[in-house]
Amino acid sequence: MKKLVQVVAVVGALGFAALAYALFTNGGFEDGTFSGWTVEHGENNQGGLTLVGGVPDSENVTYLPGGWDNNSFSGGTSEPLDNITTGTDNDFFATTLSQVRFGSHSAVVNYSGSGYNGFATNAGDYYRATRISQQDVVTGADRDPDNLFHIRFAWAAVLENPGHPQAQQPYVHVTLRNITKGTVLYSRFFYSNQTGVAWRSDNVSLNGVLWIDWQNEDLTFTDNEVLGDTLRIEASAAGCAQSGHFGHVYLDGFRSQASATGGGTTPTLDLQNGRMGAGWFGSCGMVVGRDGKGPMSAGEGAGMLALYFALLLLPVGILKLVHGKRRFPVGKTGLVALFIAASMLVASSAHAVRLIVPKAQRFHPTTDGQGALTVDTDQTLCPGQFNVGVTLSGAKKPLDLGDIRELKIRKVIVDELYTADLTVAYGFTSDITLGVDVPYNYLRKGVNVATNTEDSDSNLGDIRVNAKFRVVEGDRYGLALIPFANFDTGNDDFLLSEGKFGVGMKVAGHYDVTKPLTLYANLGVEHVGDIATGSGSPGYYTPWIQYGVGAKYLLPWRKDSIVAEVNGETPWATPYAHSTLSPLEVLAAYRTEVWPGITLQAGGGGGLNKGMGAPQWRGILGIAFRL
Fold it and tell me: For position 340, what pLDDT does the model report?
């Protein structure tokens, strides 16, 4: 059952509640007015947009001071087409689009706010266009802790698609300009039904309505790009050039480092259980090619396929060169497997969007007991051999709710999580090992996001199955492909599940540096959600890039060893854009063989950053039986 819940981020004292923050004044529109903003109106009756190569280049509107609420236009009616919304309603036409992204208010430009644009008799918009803007000088006070300048805001759009010629369609234009240097720093300029835009047409009250859910933007600039310069943000929307169809844009949360997300109020974040839609750490995006503007072409897809295939073969070639192998150490089966892996990476990157699944449980021990802790090796079990293991782990504060840009914790969502992982692996052939990981979670203290109450819980976690195919085998090295599937059997009310079925593939390898020291490395991608749906679908999440490096050192008495690793992941759509979305964790353990075929291990570690799923600390205790 899909449950729409709201997770309220508790904002502490922010110093002052005034609406003048660094760089932007009233950037969240929280005073309920357009104070600090310039509002202008015009008419889109000069033939529409100027297009270059089918893409909007410029508007053909003469803007005059004031909004349409203060001026009668050619239809002879005065309407309030620049509005401050509240958080109590959704858009009239896109019925599941919240009118507010942060806090209690947002701005909607070129929308009357009721009925069919407020004109029940003729359903027209009379060429109307509206623009709001603000400009200010960037100073050192706007600098972030990362020593860069950030401009942050969110926007959403709703346009009717009348099927007019492209230049005469309704449009939206959001742009950030450096007035001092005469450069455009950011631009989203598109007309209704323009190709390459991730339009949504579901949940609408009128046929032909297209919309884009809230897009969270975080633009970064260096001193040379903006310090001391005047920046101007503009947002405009217009109905069609034939006068009968609408277009409007929502704006919220304009801020730099020194400002609050919602303008000094408590931000409300929407989380849809079972779908984990926009609002938690991300929002919808468009499928893009290498230029970041349009869809991926067939040529780009073929080029990426060749690139990934070459990258996967690169370690093999290096090993062959270093060790002087006369025979290429990958057979036909290995080449096919590498090609499939490359194809999967291309498919994942081509569909990259910005829907993120918040997850507290990232710890998945290797199913065959080899490698490090979660970092796999290419080495396989002998044919007919079983490995059965139980790994107990405890994690403190693996998931907090907070400001993903300022990394301020607002509320602890998962406080204490204890997990027992039952792992079983079987050597199918000398080059193939099959495995399964069945975790059972005990949440001692956490928040049920369905009821917004603090509680405890015990339940199955997400079950994971994998297969290991060794494709390269050398004297001191090797490579394997490990496809895996993740079943959403965990409790997503407590964010202990990825919320959707997931599939992935990783490359795992080892290298024996010396007799006692072995190094491991993993690199792969996991896609969570329905990979067969369009990228604009709420059921489609961004793929994750997952990686890890590890080592094992055999102690002189040879039955004991020390293993250590660093593992992490980051969303494919926005890699390393925010550390909150790119967890990094370090783990280490001591292993000892207490009896032939029976191994004990104990260790721990913790997050190297505050990425979701990376805890303050993690303790590990395990036992494995080799049969």
Answer: 55
Radius of gyration of the chain (CA): 27
Domain boundaries of the chain, sorted by first residue: 18-263, 353-626
CB count within 10 Å of CB 373 equals: 28
Specify the amino acid at residue 543: P
Residue 28 has a pLDDT of 85
3-state secondary structure of 515: coil
pLDDT at 124: 39
What is the secondary structure of 559-618 as a DSSP string?
Answer: SEEEEEEEEEEEESSSTTS-GGGS-EEEEEEEEEEEETTEEEEEEEEEESS--TT--SEE
> Is 503:487 a contact under the CB 8 Å cutoff?
no
Classify residue 375 as left (phi > 0), alpha (psi -120 to 50) or beta.
beta
pLDDT tens digits for range 507-543: 999 999 998 999 999 999 888 876 665 555 555 566 7
Question: Which DSSP string corresponds to 224-273?
Answer: HHHTT-EEEEEEEEE--TTSS--EEEEEEEEE-TTS-TTSSS--EEEEEE
- The span from the CA of 411 to the CA of 396, in Å, is 14
Q: Which two tokens stand for residue 155?
A: 């926007």
Which pLDDT value is given to residue 319? 52
The CA-CA-CA angle for residues 446, 452, 457, to 5°, reads 35
- DSSP labels, 416-432: EEEEEEEEEEEEEETTE
In this structure, are residues 421 and 393 in contact, taking their beta carbons and an 8 Å threshold? Answer: yes
Contacts of 397 (CB under 8 A, 6+ apart): 412, 414, 415, 416, 615, 616
pTM as predicted: 0.52
Q: What is the crossing angle of helices 332-350 and 298-323, to 10°?
A: 140
| Helix or strand holding residue 314 (H, E) | helix 298-323
* Low-confidence stretches of the chain (pLDDT beneath 70): 1-22, 69-82, 86-88, 112-126, 257-358, 400-411, 530-542, 558, 573, 577-578
- Cα torsion through 197, 198, 204, 207, rounded to 10: 50
Q: What is the spatial distance between Cα 268 and Cα 25, in angstroms, rounded to a whole number?
A: 21
How far apart, in Å, do the first and last CA atoms of the chain sit? 42
The confidence score (pLDDT) of residue 553 equals: 93
Side-chain-side CA neighbours of residue 492 (13 Å): 21
Pick the CATH number of 18-263 from 1.10.10.350, 2.60.120.260, 3.50.50.60, 3.90.180.10: 2.60.120.260
User: CB neighbours of 138 closer than 8 A, spacing ≥ 6?
Assistant: 23, 149, 226, 227, 228, 229, 230, 231, 256
Beta strands in 138-194 (DSSP E): 149-160, 171-178, 183-191
Question: In the prediction, which pLDDT does 277 show?
Answer: 29
Rounded distance, CA 414 to CA 519, Å? 33
Report residue 232: phi and psi, to 5°: -130, 125
- What per-residue confidence (pLDDT) applies to 567? 93
CATH topology of domain 353-626: Porin (2.40.160)
> What are the Cα distances from residue 106, in Å, to 99, 102, 246, 251, 608?
7, 8, 19, 6, 36
Alpha-carbon gap, residue 493 to 109, rounded angstroms = 36
Measured CA angle at 19 (ends 226, 229), to 5 deg: 15
State the DSSP code for 357. -
